[in-house]
Amino acid sequence: MLLRRLSWLPLLAVFSWSLAAAPPRANLRGEVMILVYHNFGPEARWSRSLANFDSDLSRLESAGYRPVTLRQYVTADFQLPAGTTPVVLTFDDGSRNQMKFTAGGQLDPDCAVAHWVAFAKAHPDFPVHGTFFVNPGTDVFGQRAFIKPKLEMLVKLGSEIGNHTYDHPHLNALPPAEIDREIGLGQYDIDRYLPGYDVTSFALPFGQAPHDDALAVASSWTGAPGRNAAPVTVRWRYGAVVLVGSGPAPSPLVEGLKAAHLPRIQVFTPEFDKWMTYFERNPARRFISDGEHHAPLSLPARALASRR
Ligand SMILES: [Zn+2]
Q: Whole-structure pTM over 0.85, yes or no?
């Protein structure tokens, strides 16, 4: 009898191992976190310490999250291992400590991008695939001479560059012509730094939409981009427009996703922990990949179709 019982043990061991190894069941209707970082430095309401950023990356990776850009998320244009969950890391305002170069033009280890690059080296399943929203009229990472090589490096790493207007105004307080100028000039400068690059994501400054929020999705601007410059016409049709707060976003595969009003989660203590814990306690709410590639709608039809 004892022998008979023992003979089951290896089978049980194999069974429980396969349970442990089996990926969580796919849930393509689950929610996705679009995180937003601003400054890096001493931990504060709008600032994340680099040590906490390191632990964010580590916690996300070990909990089965895998980074995708906002563009990839909104079009469901990603293929992640079965059982993992997409997460979007966005970075607003081109703050200095997001990306620094040394005087010699190398990535300075003391910045968020360098920390992520180092993390990705040790964890190739968590590559530097983020979305960086910049305001070319104010400051793009603080070192004017290095704006172009920094943007080029981000694109090369697989990250995305998004428009955040020219100089970060309150769009809900501006007349339509000024809104067009703010978005158009921001777009124009990104085009100048990255000729031919297709900008498809836009972040509303302060999360405030214009009264006619269609302007943030698709419009155009004609004007002189500088003193004595010849007038230019800039057109945009964005596929994803993000707000500032305040919770997880729907699955990109659900009908009626409001791609022109996507919520984000601000990363600071204790907000990040709150949402990580929320998905630990409510695993059924979390998007879980089935390992397949799904691409339901091309840009910018996604945002234009769900503007209202
Ligand atoms: Zn901003």
A: yes
Q: How far apart are the CA of 219 and the centre of ligand 1, in A?
A: 21
**Where are the extended beta strands (E) located within 171-210?**
201-203
Distance 208 CA to ligand 1 centre (A): 10
Measure the CA–CA gap between 29 and 84, rounded to whole angstroms: 14
For the chain, the domains span: 24-305
Cross-strand pairs, 162: 133
CB 197 within 8 A of CB 156: no
- What is the mean pLDDT for each group of 10 consecutive residues in the chain (308 residues)? 45 47 86 97 94 98 98 94 97 97 97 98 98 94 95 98 97 94 97 95 94 89 93 94 91 88 94 96 96 74 54
DSSP β-bridge partners for residue 220: 235
Q: Answer whether the bond into residue 300 is a cis peptide, omega within 30°.
A: yes
User: Which class is 24-305 in CATH?
Assistant: alpha beta
Cross-strand pairs, 91: 37, 132
Distance CA 14, CA 6 (A): 14
CA 139, CA 235: separation in Å to the nearest integer?
A: 23
What is the distance in A from the centroid of ligand 1 to the CA of 206?
6
Measure the CA–CA gap between 149 and 216, rounded to whole angstroms. Answer: 27
H/E stretch holding 108 reads none
